[in-house]
Amino acid sequence: MEYKIGQIVYSKDGHDKGEVMMVVSVEDRYLYLVNGKTRKLAKPKRKKILHVQPTHYVDADMAEKLTRNEYILDADIRKALKSYQIKAVDC
Questions:
Q1: Residue 65: which CATH number?
Q2: Torsions phi, psi of 89, nearest 5?
C-alpha cells in the first residue's frame, strides 16, 4: 500500500504500540508520524512502514495544509485524530 501525507495509521510495534498517528512525511521505507501529544510536529517519529497498520482514512484538510507547508498547531493534529476516532467508533 502506498502511504499519503495526512493518512491515519496505527503503530503496530514499539513503545507506542496501538497509538493512532498521522503521516506528515514519507521517505523511501520510512514514515514520519505525529500525534500532537507525545510526538509533536517539531519532532516527528520516524517509523518503518512495516511497523504501522494503515487505515484508508486521509484527512484531506490536514493533508492539504501539510503539502502547502502552512502553519499547523499540534492541537490541529490532535483534533483531526480525535475526529477520526469518533468516526471509527460510529461505523
A1: 2.30.30
A2: -70, -35
* Count of structural domains, the chain: 1
pTM value is 0.91
| CA 62 and chain centroid, separation | 10
Condensed to tens digits (0 to 9), the pLDDT of residues 25-53 reads 999 999 999 999 999 999 999 999 999 99
Q: Is the dihedral of CA 71, 9, 39, 51 positive or negative?
A: negative
Shortest CA distance to 7 belongs to which of 82, 75, 57? 57
Q: Give the model's pLDDT for residue 41.
A: 96
Q: Which residue has 517509523 as its cell numbers?
A: 47
| 48 C-beta neighbours (distance < 10 Å), count | 12
Domain that holds residue 23: 7-90
Which of 61-87 are b and which e, b meaning 16 or more Cβ less than 10 Å from the residue's Cβ?
Answer: ebbebbeeeeebeeebbeebbeebeee
Q: What is the H or E stretch that residue 43 is in?
A: none
